[in-house]
Amino acid sequence: AQSVTQPDIHITVSEGASLELRCNYSYGATPYLFWYVQSPGQGLQLLLKYFSGDTLVQGIKGFEAEFKRSQSSFNLRKPSVHWSDAAEYFCAVVGTGGGNKLTFGTGTQLKVEL
Amino acid sequence: GAGVSQSPSNKVTEKGKDVELRCDPISGHTALYWYRQSLGQGLEFLIYFQGNSAPDKSGLPSDRFSAERTGGSVSTLTIQRTQQEDSAVYLCASSFGRYNEQFFGPGTRLTVL
């Protein structure tokens, strides 16, 4: 069964600093990978997705992620964090073998210090 | 209305009562999903609809949980004889096409007293 690991439960960065949120997945074939963001009291918003092709994908709000098959990773990055980026971030995978359900990581809570 | 909508946004009920949660997907989206988000369990898949059929119900935690979808559109998640452990935020998502990009609604926060 597929699984997703987000090893960092909480991360605090200063505004303007760079950010990297880690995500590792377990799946036998090439998965479809996603990053979602959830602000307090809100639903999930898709930041970016990877299906195939270029392993560096660009998303909304200045985020990007890199798919590394050798490391089974799909880390999310942003070069300069804004205070409004404070939220919870979820990495998710959909298996390409037929199942359509998203399997989520446990999330990383991002705090931004001004 | 461009997004997924859910109602009610909040629901408080007493243990043992039945509740119905509604989801209106994005128009034209053929797939619809229910997830549950709770402190102890994180984000969990409940059920997936393709059209009006549910090919994957594997995430429903007990037979107290059921869901239906009519007209390939609106879906209702029903929880019978609610228990305190059912307290969670119930999220609905919809998608169209092969790549399973799912768009989420704002959720229904269920509190069972």
Topology:
The complex is a heterodimer of chains A (114) and B (113).
Chain A: E1 3-5, E2 10-14, E3 19-21, E4 24-26, E5 32-38, E6 44-50, E7 56-58, E8 64-68, E9 73-78, E10 87-94, E11 103-104, E12 108-113
Chain B: E1 5-7, E2 10-13, E3 19-24, E4 31-38, E5 42-50, E6 53-56, E7 65-69, E8 75-79, E9 88-95, E10 103-104, E11 108-112
Parallel strand pairs in B: 2-11
Antiparallel strand pairs in B: 1-3, 3-8, 4-5, 4-9, 5-6, 7-8, 9-10, 9-11
Overview in brief:
By secondary structure, chain A is mainly β. Chain A is 0% helix and 51% strand.
In terms of per-residue confidence, which ranges of chain B show pLDDT below 50 for 5 or more consecutive residues?
none
Rg of chain B from C-alpha positions? 13 Å
Round the mean pLDDT of chain B to the nearest integer and report it: 93
Strand fraction of chain A equals over 45%
Which chains have the largest interface? A-B, 21 and 24 residues
Poorly predicted ranges of chain A:
none
With helices defined by DSSP (H or I, 4 residues minimum), what is the helix count of chain A? 0
Q: Looking at the structure, what is the overall shape of chain A?
A: globular
CA gyration radius of chain A, whole angstroms: 14 Å
The best one-word shape of chain B is globular
The main pleated sheet of chain A reads as:
6 strands, mixed
Note the total helix count of chain B.
0
End-to-end separation of chain A? 41 Å
| Helical content band of chain A | under 10%
Largest sheet of chain B: 7 strands, mixed
Kindly, what is the distance between the CA atoms of the first and last residues of chain B, rounded to a whole number of angstroms? 33 Å
Number of separate strands of chain B: 11
Characteristic key phrases:
heterodimer, A: 114 residues, mainly beta, six-stranded mixed sheet, 12 strands, 0% helix, B: 113 residues, seven-stranded mixed sheet, four-stranded antiparallel sheet, 11 strands, 52% strand, globular
